[in-house]
Design the sequence.
C-alpha cells in the first residue's frame, strides 16, 4: 500500500519496525524517529519507502494552486473531565 | 481469605467477558488479573495474532496489552516496512471502543501499548493499530521517551530466547481528563512490566503522561500496588527486584 500524503488521518508508514514512522494527516504529515539507512538491500528498501512518502508530500504541496504561506492551526477539540471511575 | 475470594471473583468476572483466551502471551499462561473490581466492569479480552488486550468499556481503551517476545520474532520485526492504518475495533460492543474521531485535534497521540515495532508479521503489525491497543498519549512523550523505552525493551528481548511484556495505563487522582465524544480517559501514567525468565529478572518502568524525559523504575510489587493489576505469571520471588535503569534511555 502506497503512502498517500494528506489523504487521511489514519495511515502510518512504518520503516524498520517502528524505528521511523510517517504519520498521515490532512494538514500535517509527521516524520518521527531515527532511521539508520545501511548500505545494503535492506537499506535500499527503507530509503525507497521514505523517498516515496516524501515525494508524495512534495507532489501534493507543489500541485496545490491555493497553497497558503502558513496553514492555520486547527483549534483543539474540547476535552472533558470525569470522576475517576476506579477509585472511591 | 476474603481478599483471596475477591480476587478470584474478579478473575472470574474477567474471564466471563472473554470472547476467547490466548494464554500463549503470558508466562505460564497466567494473564494479568484485575485486583480492583471497579476495573472489571465492561472489561473484555481481545486476542490478536501476537499480542492480547484487556479492553475497558469504561476508559475506552486497554487496561493492559500483553506480548511474548522471542528473539527470532524480534529479529524479523526489525525489517518490517509497510503502511498501516489505525482502525476502530468492531469486535467491541457499540460505544465501548474509542473512535478515530475521538483523538482528532485532541492534542494526544494514539499511543500504542503493545508496540508496532515488536510485531513480526504484516498481519500482526496491522492488528497493533487497533484503537483497542491505544491510549491518549502526550505526543512528545510518545515520540521520544516512550520510543526509547520500547527500543530498550526490544534490546533486552534480543539478548534472551524470550521475554514477556505487559504495557498499560495508570489512572491516578480523583478527577481525570477525557477526549472526544466517547470520553476516552487520558491516563496519568503509562507502565511496562518486563519479565525475562532466562535471567530470572522482572521489573517495571513507569512514566508520567506528559512531555518529560524522566522515567521511573519500579519493582513489580510496587507496580501492582499502583496499577490495580496483579501478575500471577511472574514468580513472587522476583517481584521485589529493583534494577538500576534502562540502557540507552
Sequence:
Amino acid at each position: 500500500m502506497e503512502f498517500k500524503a494528506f489523504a487521511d488521518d489514519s495511515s502510518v508508514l512504518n520503516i524498520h519496525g517502528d524505528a521511523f514512522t510517517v504519520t498521515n494527516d490532512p494538514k500535517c504529515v509527521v516524520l518521527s524517529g531515527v532511521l539508520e539507512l545501511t548500505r545494503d538491500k535492506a537499506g535500499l528498501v527503507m530509503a525507497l519507502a521514505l523517498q516515496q512518502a516524501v515525494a508524495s508530500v512534495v507532489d501534493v504541496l507543489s500541485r496545490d494552486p491555493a497553497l497558503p504561506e502558513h496553514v492555520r492551526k486547527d483549534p483543539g477539540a474540547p476535552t472533558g473531565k470525569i470522576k475517576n471511575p476506579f477509585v472511591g | 481469605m476474603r481478599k483471596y475470594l475477591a480476587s478470584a471473583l474478579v478473575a472470574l468476572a474477567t474471564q466471563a467477558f472473554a470472547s476467547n483466551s490466548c494464554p500463549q502471551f503470558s508466562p505460564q499462561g497466567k494473564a494479568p488479573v484485575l485486583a480492583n473490581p471497579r476495573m472489571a466492569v465492561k472489561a473484555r479480552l481481545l486476542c490478536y495474532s501476537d499480542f492480547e488486550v484487556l479492553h475497558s468499556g469504561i476508559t475506552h481503551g486497554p487496561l493492559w496489552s500483553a506480548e511474548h517476545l522471542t528473539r527470532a520474532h524480534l529479529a524479523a520485526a526489525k525489517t518490517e516496512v509497510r503502511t498501516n492504518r489505525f482502525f476502530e475495533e468492531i469486535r467491541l460492543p457499540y460505544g465501548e471502543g474509542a473512535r478515530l474521531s475521538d483523538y482528532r485535534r485532541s492534542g494526544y497521540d494514539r499511543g500504542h501499548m503493545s508496540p508496532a515495532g515488536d510485531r513480526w508479521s504484516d498481519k500482526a503489525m496491522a492488528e497493533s493499530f487497533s484503537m483497542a491497543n491505544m491510549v491518549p498519549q502526550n505526543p512528545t512523550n510518545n515520540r521520544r521517551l516512550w520510543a526509547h523505552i520500547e527500543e530498550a525493551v526490544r534490546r533486552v528481548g534480543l539478548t534472551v530466547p524470550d521475554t514477556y511484556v505487559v504495557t498499560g495505563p495508570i489512572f491516578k487522582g480523583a478527577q481525570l481528563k477525557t477526549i472526544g465524544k466517547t470520553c476516552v480517559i487520558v491516563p496519568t501514567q503509562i507502565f511496562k512490566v518486563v519479565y525475562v525468565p532466562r535471567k530470572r529478572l522482572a521489573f517495571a518502568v513507569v512514566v508520567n503522561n506528559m512531555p518529560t524525559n524522566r522515567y521511573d523504575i519500579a519493582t513489580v510489587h510496587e507496580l501492582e500496588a499502583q496499577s490495580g493489576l496483579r501478575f500471577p505469571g511472574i514468580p513472587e520471588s522476583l517481584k521485589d527486584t529493583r534494577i538500576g535503569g534502562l540502557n540507552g534511555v
